[in-house]
Amino acid sequence: MSQKLKAGILGGTGMVGQRFIALLENHPWFEVTTIAASPRSAGKRYEDAVGGRWKMDTPMPEAVKDLVVMNVNEVEAVASKVDFVFSAVDMSKEEIKAIEEAYAKTETPVVSNNSAHRWTPDVPMVVPEINPEHMKVIDFQKKRLGTERGFVAVKPNCSIQSYAPVLTAWKEFEPYEVVATTYQAISGAGKTFQDWPEMEGNIIPFIGGEEEKSEREPLRIWGEIKDGVIVPAESPLITCRCIRVPVLNGHTAAVFVKFKKKPTKEQLIEKLRNYRGEPQELKLPSAPEHFIQYLEEDNRPQVTEDVDYENGMGISVGRLREDTVYDWKFVGLSHNTVRGAAGGAVLCAELLKAQGYISAK
Kind of enzyme, top EC level (predicted)? Predict the structure, then answer.
């Protein structure tokens, strides 16, 4: 009998849900045993529910094709079949908040890709290499929910992954002002070029809500737990523009930084290349061996060359230059649906298992 933990996917027919299923194929710790989606998909075989909408570039895993999709709204029924769930449901923010807490109250841990709970004060929002200690706020959340093992944990927005880890690596030089422009792939909107042909050869200078998330979420990640809640950091000041570009996968960021302490280029590159976090120390299954790579070539990082670095779980940085207005500028690249979405959530679940928060029911 399998000793793997039984994982459920809430919202398993959408693009992020599909990415969860693809990433969890042959996972050493977790096995997808249950898929839940909207009532219109419920009762169908997973393969039939998805139909021609499988958007991954790898085939649908055989192990999930015959799973009968459950109704995500039948919380008790779904929860009874799993040890924990990943959430990628497509609902309003208030509906997502309610359903994720409902699952938590069945004593089912929820690891969410959604934004609904990112600012719930006692819900950890974690990049495992940056703020693994924030998972400790779960103990306070459980008291509020009245649970023994049920809770909600989330990962942050995909757009910040290409620069927040870099600024974290440079923390000792005290960055205090940041300007970032992100160039974001269409898969961040759950689309392919077949779904969104008008994006071919096009740029849209607006992504709803994205700029606010990009400016504020890093501060919560850099915050600290006080009196049972996470209090965001107050600096650096970040201003951001978010632009949709005709790329399938990969968010690129052009970033300008001012530092209180004046680092050299060599110091900055050394900090990036040597940056390690708890996932690397624990050798978690999805953890990149090298979290951040620095590329010396003038024309890197590039989406076509670098988006899959460390199986999409690593960050690529290049074009580090002194600036005439700010101190330094660089370009970062991350895979938005792997590190920035499902992969980041899988790594959070691995960290939670290693910390003892996720276990067999």
Answer: oxidoreductase
